Fold these 2 entries.
Entry 1:
Amino acid sequence: MRLKTSLVIAPLLAMSAAGAANAQITSNPFPAPIEKKGLAVEIKDVVRLPDSRGAHGTDDVTPSGWARVSFMRDLPDGRRFVNDSRGFLYLLDASNQPHVYADVSAAFPYAVYNRLESGFIGFAFHPEFAKNGLFYTVHSERGPGNPKTPDFIPPGYGVKDASYHNVITEWHATNPAAATFEGTRRELLREAHVVANLTHPMGALEFNPAAKPGDADYGLLYTSGSDHGFSNGGGPNASNPAQTQRLDTIMTAILRIDPRSPSVSHGVKGLGDYTVPMANKFAADNDPKTLGEIYAYGFRNAHRLSWDMADGTMFASDIGMDNIEEINIVRNGENYGWMRREGYFDNGRFRGGALNELYPLPADIMDGRKKDGYTYPVAMYDHDEGRSVTDGFAYHGRIAALRGKFVFGDIQTGRVFASDLAAMKKADDGIPQTVAPIEEIQLYVRDASGKRVDVTMRGLAEKMMDKSLPRADLHIGRSRDGELFLTSRQDGMIRMLVPDDEKAASNK
Ligand SMILES: [Ca+2]
Ligand SMILES: [Ca+2]
């Protein structure tokens, strides 16, 4: 009888222990708050973009936003470009005054502007633009009534299902030195959305700025890693785990492509008019169902990528579902988990539950004893701290307090964060539970008398717009000498983090 009892109890205990470990996390996955620990940085206005309100009537996600500034880019020769997602590419002159370089909205009559990532979403200049005149844009168009056919539609769907198109275009400036664009265009890739809303389209184009001529990475174009709304994009095709964790689709994948047409490169043709780089791990795979343009996959919305100029480490900011925001270190051929993983948790959707559910991973996976094939974030925060992670950059500029930090923030709240770069790289260890701590940066301005006044990005935008704002719409950019731009899509102002100006202010 004793023996029988112990045999019965043992499995019950085991089940109950497993039950506790698998219990859904219903609130505050990271209870410790992100705090300010003394990091304080001055912020200064650079220039406000022209007022573009009303450019597309009611087809506008935030009609009251002054300008929808999304990316700042410095060319190696010092020219500075910035886009307004309402369709304008500006060249800033030597006094940082904006002049329209290209009217992107006029080029794309089917473009749509009604979502956070929509319209003229992003752009990148070829590292040799000054010689070859090439730059690249990504924009969104409506699907119904569109005369063009996508190069790629998610598996199992057809042209009739295409709700939106996401398009990468190469622009060729006849005279790269000219102050306004004149030249030709070539479509590189047109791919379809099949969910109801234009949610998480390709949102970034990047060339690795740390790559030098002759490096394998030089001149290769990266895209964001975006699930194209197969999480919460709405309609019957959304909330769809079966469209993730597979290599026969570009959904959730950061692509790395050689933008040259295969007719020029004589290489392997990709889904569109570009070449698949053989340096991509998945290109070396001979499985015909594996897309060679995939560099890494398993992202929900890795909408921003950056590289540490000191050692070439690649970072991606991946916006989470209902719970976890991630900074990831990205490597060729790796799987970052979505829709199975969110942060270092199991997302409930893959278990047949809901997208907003989180479950803990088993202890032997968390501490790295057992490998599960996923690569985990090096820094994370949860949704009582913010809602959607911005761009982030390894900082090696003139502000002493930020050197050796990775600076990022939260789009909606406008909070600006920092983590130690060394701690992030140390956390890139194959062990999910090791992550770098995050602290908040206090921003301040110097008033006319030189006195320090603490501010927030949201507060600055609210002052400029003279009203309270539901979101800061913060994005971050990096200048060619490594300084950081902070921009808001609410007030259209471009600001910079600067070394403290106390002496200059007190000398006035
Ligand atoms: Ca928390
Ligand atoms: Ca780790």
Entry 2:
Amino acid sequence: MASGNQQFVKEIADINKNFPQWYTDVVIKTQLVDYGPVKGTMVIRPYGYAIWENIQRELDMRIKATGHENAYFPMFIPYSYLLKEAEHVEGFAPEVALVTHIGDEELPEKLVVRPTSETIIGNMYSKWIQSWRDLPVMINQWANVVRWEKTTRPFLRTSEFLWQEGHTVHAIEEEAEDEALKMLEVYKEFAENVLAIPVIVGRKSEKEKFAGAKTTYTMEAMMLDGKSLQSGTTHNLAQNFAKAFDIQFLDKDGVLKYPFQTSWGVSTRLIGALIMAHGDERGLVLPPAVAPKQVIIIPIAAFKGGVNEKAKELKASLRARGIRAEIDDRDQSPGWKFNEWEMKGVPARIEVGPRDIESGSCVFVRRDTHEKKTFDFDGIAQAVEEELEDIQRNMLEKSRGFRDAHILVCDTLAELKKAVDSGNFVKAMWCGSTECEAVIKQETAASLRCMPFEQEVVGTRCVCCGKPLKGDEGITAYFAKAY
Ligand SMILES: [Zn+2]
């Protein structure tokens, strides 16, 4: 079995030596995705799609529990819509795919394949909203979007990806602001409790905010290479799109007013986050809450009487408790199967052989810690359930420990550069000038990830220009290289 292990590990690059290659090897070899024939597109294979379905189910439940309903809007948007909001068109025009012809015939107006849906939804809302009685509007859409990116990587940046986008409308600005903050909190809870990824939440700078938003909030997750993955954003759009699309409502006081909007989204990027926050030298490590298979049962010496029957019995008892259990009865050696399922990140495996049946117990192995335990068949479903809960908890704690150990406070640009180059996030004081933000990006390749809600004074000078900052003059911000 040891030789099997070594052989298998050879198939994926060393996570400590070549993280980008490790990522590529893992996503392809575990059959999460494959490359589509058109450059920059990805095919999400059943194993990857099952993770997405689990993400969708967990998040959809939370989106509905906070008062939203799902709807679906067309993917084709008249080009003129994109032009209506100045910042929005500037932000998205370079990467939109356009439909110009139907067959041989040129269209009188080009169509945009949606890069995001603020414009088409804004257009529809202008028809649906007339009175204060029509507010708030709380709609979410699960959809695909297209953004033609120059450099692409599966899940992280692809020409087409899947996501959800919430679009709400409110009578007063405070409500829109509260909504943007509330959904960020929903995302954070989801990231931590379902994906087992601790996130840093805060506000984006003017430079990094969404094209067309007044304020963008973000959750940033640290990957194992110390880079940040922007994992979800919420936007207070203020009245920008309401004015561009002439959404107006007659308020209680008889005055015609523009309402306030939000939008918010997370995407299949989250699968990239799972891979890069939890993986190890053997491949994927999936948190039980989203793992397509939570327990894999591997028969040992399956040709011997009673082994397959026992495996089936075990699977049934685990399934009866709501555990996603499967048997791998393919014609391969147990060692080969151990390696395969470890690479695929299945949270736990159970080995069932003739000796186990005799002793009335079996071997249980955790993917997160590689710990081996022996469980009696009696009451095994409950024991496994508790282990899965512990794996989920342990993965979050491990990620939190890793993250906290890789956040450094810096006082100078040189320190900042050294820290991000060696795989850390930097917490530092910033004078708030766009120039300093740009210099930092240019000199260190790190961008301003967010300004955390909990502002704490971590220095007395701007990390870039050195300007002294007294009292609440400075802004505490996180800087990191990012995906
Ligand atoms: Zn400065």
